Amino acid sequence: MRILVVEDDAPLAEVLRRGLTEDGYATDVVGRLVDATHAVQVNSYDLVILDRGLPDGDGRTLCADMRSRGDGTAVLMLTARDGLGDKVEGLDAGADDYLTKPFDYPELTARIRALLRRPADSQTPILTHGEIEMDPASRRVSRSSITIPLTAREFALLERMLRAPGHTHARTDLLESVWDANYDGLSNVVDVHIANLRRKLELPGHDDPIETVRGVGYRLTPAEAST
Ligand code: CA
């Protein structure tokens, strides 16, 4: 899951970047409308958190622009104003939800989960593949009922694959969905994390659940689904 934060208040933007990254979201942060407009055109986001009061304009115009281009990415609008008129304006521009500043971080994450259809309650579907089970709400993963502790990145990689079990995931797709645009570390970071994930999911007498598709990327081993 990849999130764009459009917020010119630097301390708030930093709190959001840190919190969302810790929660396992790939998070990009920009502070101006012009940079946000560019970011949504070149990257693919699951959610945009959009401040209305930006130095070069009203965040609402970005939302309206995205909708006019047929971009249905979820938008959560932030506003310092608490008037009913501001809420209506935001929703009219195509925002999916809005939050008035100041807000508590847990309130924000609750809204995010709702928008990404990952409710925190027990209604959340458990993702399974063979003996692997993932509960996105509690962020717990197990194989054959043995709990497997994963880092936020490993969790995000596995979740991406579990949500599209028959799909081959290109390295670049995994990199884009799990790491943010400022990532400038090792180019083989996906391979390194997949190797760690494999090691953690390893169980004696069980097949490797992740298959390498030469020259492309990774997919879940089909045989695992039928065991
Ligand atoms: Ca602002």
Written account of the structure:
- This protein is α/β, with parallel strands linked by helices and 227 residues long.
- Helix content is 40%, strand content 23%.
- The chain contains 9 helices and 14 strands.
- The strands form 4 sheets. Strands 2-1-3-6-7 form a 5-stranded parallel sheet, with helices on both faces. A 4-stranded antiparallel sheet has the order 8-9-10-11, with helices on one face.
- Helix 6 (152-162) crosses helix 8 (189-201).
- The radius of gyration is 19 Å and the shape is elongated.
- The two termini are 28 Å apart.
- 31% of the residues are buried.
Q: SSE layout and pairings?
A:
Layout: E1 2-6, H1 10-22, E2 26-30, H2 33-42, E3 47-51, E4 53-54, E5 57-58, H3 59-68, E6 74-79, H4 84-92, E7 97-100, H5 105-115, E8 127-129, E9 132-135, E10 140-143, E11 146-147, H6 152-162, E12 169-170, H7 171-178, H8 189-201, E13 210-213, E14 217-220, H9 222-226
Parallel strand pairs: 1-2, 1-3, 3-6, 6-7
Antiparallel strand pairs: 4-5, 8-9, 9-10, 10-11, 12-14, 13-14
Helix pairs in contact: 6-8
The chain binds calcium ion.
Structure described in brief:
The protein has helices spanning 10-22, 33-42, 59-68, 84-92, 105-115, 152-162, 171-178, 189-201, 222-226; strands at 2-6, 26-30, 47-51, 53-54, 57-58, 74-79, 97-100, 127-129, 132-135, 140-143, 146-147, 169-170, 210-213, 217-220. It is α/β, with parallel strands linked by helices and 227 residues long.
